[in-house]
Specification:
This protein is mainly alpha-helical. It folds into 2 domains: 61 residues, Orthogonal Bundle (Arc Repressor Mutant, subunit A); 44 residues. The chain has a two-stranded antiparallel sheet. It is elongated. The protein is 62% helix and 10% strand.
């Protein structure tokens, strides 16, 4: 069995929550992921996501149901802002990011920037 990269399981669980787009039990998440991981493993990951503010939970009888705390797009934007906030040369970081974009992504970004003006 190959070991997952750090954070990969949390990301997979979050993706399952985004796909389900409703409060979901650990069993629902397991089904959506198509994994053979134990219920307790997924429940532990869901609990950690709640502790990090990435998921919410609510009682559903004797168990909990979980939902993503934000959309994938919102979380990605938050992470990008956090990375930029952590650099001492924001302009170079932005330039490097922009240079890595393909022409279609550049056009999308320009359109978004023009819409915010």
């Amino acid at each position: 069995m190959t070991r997952r990269a750090d954070g990969e399981l949390e990301t997979d669980v979050l993706r399952a929550l985004w796909t389900l787009d409703r409060p979901a039990s650990p069993s629902d998440v397991i089904d959506e992921m198509g994994t053979d991981l134990a219920y307790t493993s997924i429940a532990t990951i869901l609990g950690r996501l709640c502790e990090k503010g990435l998921a919410t939970r609510q009682r559903a009888g004797r168990a909990y149901e979980y939902a993503a705390a934000s959309t994938e797009a919102d979380l990605t934007a938050q992470r990008l802002r956090s990375i930029l906030d952590g650099t001492t040369d924001r302009q170079s970081a932005l330039a490097g990011f922009a240079e890595a974009l393909d022409p279609a992504e550049v056009a999308q970004l320009l359109a978004l920037l023009n819409d915010t003006k």
